[in-house]
Amino acid sequence: MRAPARTMSPPRAAAAGAPAGRKLGWLPPAVVAGGLVPLVVLGLRAGAGALGPDPVAEALNQLGLLALLLLVASLTATPLKLVSGWTFPLRIRKALGLLAFFYACAHFLTYALIDQGLDVRAIVEDITERPFLLAGFVALLALVPLAATSTARMLKRLGAARWKRLHRLAYAAAVLGIVHFFLRVKKDATEPMIYAALLALLFAVRIASAVLRRRAERR
After folding, report:
1. How do residues 67-90 score in pLDDT, each as one tens digit?
2. DSSP the chain
3. pTM given for the model
């Protein structure tokens, strides 16, 4: 008599329903590698003299835009998980945040080293006298403790609650980055308004989730 066929155990993650269950250890390195491609392209364009009549301004614009884009992308991870149930965005949130910090530093160093020739007095005067520079500089300062505490060791040292409170600075940095962008463009504010609308949507999702969770706890 033949033994009954064994029932196949369900896969550890459904193909579309739960992508977070897959082992995606390759994903963060892939995100970092992909995130550095624009820098390589920018460097090649600079080497070929293809950055236009004002290459420093073009480099500053590109680096600053990449920093803001990646920062907002990192803030999308949790709301996306709340809405869809997927947890794989959380796997790349740290990589996106560190890339954002990297590009923000590159943006500032391009300004300080190339545009201002590392003239500290001129840099300080420029930042204190021009509101859009002040907003961008404070945004960069807000990202410093986030990058410094991005490791598992720092999470353990600070504790989950304190770590989460500290990393809410990412939203403040994003707001300041958008203000910096808005004040910089002056006339056509279409792009910064798009980022502002997206950030407002992310805020709304998190607030709605917190309200629903509190209601469920009361019940």
Report:
1. 999 999 999 999 999 898 888 889
2. -PPPPPPPPPPSS-TTT-GGGS--TTHHHHHHHHHHHHHHHHHHHHHTT-S-S-HHHHHHHHHHHHHHHHHHHHHHHHHHHHHH---HHHHHHHHHHHHHHHHHHHHHHIIIIIISTT-HHHHHHHHHH-HHHHHHHHHHHHHHHHHHT-SHHHHHHH-HHHHHHHTTHHHHHHHHHHHHHHHHHTT--HHHHHHHHHHHHHHHHHHHHHHHHHHHHH-
3. 0.86
